[in-house]
Amino acid sequence: MREIIRLLRPYQYYKNLVIFLPLIFGQVLFDVNAFYKTIIGFLCLCLISSVNYIINDLVDISKDKIHPEKRKRPLASGKIDKLTAVIIAVVLFITAGLISLFLSKMFFLFVFSLFVTTQIYTLFFKKEAFVDIIIIAVNFVIRAVSGAFVATYNNHPYIEVSQWLIFSPFFLSLFLSAGKREADQKLLGKGSEKHKEVLKYYNKDITKSLMIISTTLLIIVYSLYIFFSEYKFLIFTLPFSLYVIFRYLYLVESGSEVARHPHKVYEDKRILAGIILWVFLTLVSIYFV
User: Fold this and answer.
1) What pLDDT is recorded for position 200?
2) Measured between alpha carbons, how far is 25 from 18 in angstroms, rounded to an integer?
3) Which of 161, 180, 196 is the last residue of a domain?
4) 45: closest CA among 110, 106, 90?
5) Is 98 in the same domain as 32?
6) 147 & 249 share domain
C-alpha cells in the first residue's frame, strides 16, 4: 500500500490548490455549497494528476532508473510492476471522469483538457526546450480556471473568470519551472541531459535569463492586479509577496532541495512564514476590511 501511495505522488497535489483561487477572490469562500463543490473538484484534479504521474513514470522508467533521486520511485525500483500501475491509472481515470461529470459538464472538459495537455507534454514536448515549461504553465491555468466551473448555470461559471486568474497562475508556474530547471542543473551537473534530455538546452545562462524574465513578469502581474483590484487593502500584501519570491530565488541559487521539490517548502521556515503571512493578509483584505 505504501508503494501505491508513493506511485500516486500525493506530495504533488499542492499544484491543484490553485482551484481555490476563484473561490477566494470571488468572495464566496464561506459559501458552503461552493466550498463543498470546490473540495470535490480539488480531489478530482488530484486523481487525474496521479493518472498523469503514473503514465509519466511508465514512459520514463528507463531514465528514472539511472537518476540519483528518481530511481527510488516504485516503478523504477521495481517495487510495483507495469501492469499494476496501468490498472491503477485506469481506475483513477474513470473515477475522476465520473466525479467531474457529477459537478458539471464544463468542469469535466477542464479535467479532460488537463489530462490531454499533460499527455501531449509527456509524449511529444517533454524534450522540447521552452515548450515544456509553457505547457506546464498552461496546465496551471487550467487548474485555476476550472475552479470557476465546479458549478455552472447554462454552461456559464458561477464565478466570473478574470484575466488575472489566467495571468497569475501562468507566470507563477513559469517562475517555479525556471527555478526547477536551474536547480536540476546544479544537482546533475554536466551529465544532466542523460537524466532529462531537455536539460541539454537549459545551460546556466539560459536558466538565469529565464529566472530573471519569469520573476519580473510575476511581480509585474501581481503588482498590477493588487493596484487595480477592488480589494484596496491587497496593496499591503506586496512586501510579503516580494519576500517570498526573493527567498525562493535565494533557495534556487543556494542549491536548496526546496527549489527542486517545492512541496518541501515547510523545510524552510522563513519562506513558510512569508507564505502564511501573505495568505493571511490576503484573506483579511478580501473578507474582513
Assistant:
1) 81
2) 11
3) 161
4) 110
5) yes
6) no
Query: Same domain for 143 and 233?
Result: no
**Residue 64 burial (CB count, 10 A):** 20
166 in the same domain as 154: no
Residue pLDDT, tens place only, 150-205: 977 767 787 888 899 899 999 999 999 998 888 877 776 666 666 577 778 888 88
Angle at 132 between CA 66 and CA 38, to 5 degrees: 105
Spell out the alpha helix ranges (H) of the chain: 2-8, 21-25, 32-59, 61-64, 74-77, 82-103, 105-120, 131-146, 164-188, 192-195, 204-228, 238-253, 257-260, 269-287
Cβ atoms 214, 248 nearer than 8 A: no
Structurally, the chain folds into a number of domains equal to 2
Model's pTM, two decimal places? 0.91
The range of the structural domain enclosing residue 157 comes to 1-161
Bridge partners of 152, per DSSP, are 157
Tell me which residue has cell 478530482.
Answer: 44
Residues 209-237 pLDDT 10s: 999 999 999 999 999 999 999 999 999 99
Whose CA is closest to 184, among 207, 158, 165, 161? 207
Domain termination site, one of 161, 189, 224: 161
Residue 147 sits in a domain whose CATH number is 1.10.357.140
Instruction: Write out the three cell numbers for 191.
Output: 551529465
Q: How far apart are the first and last CA of the chain?
A: 47
Helix (H) or strand (E) holding 156: strand 156-157
Say which DSSP state 266 is in: G
The alpha carbon of residue 42 and the mean position of all alpha carbons in its chain are separated, in whole angstroms, by 12
Longest alpha-carbon distance in the chain:
55
Cell of 81: 510492476
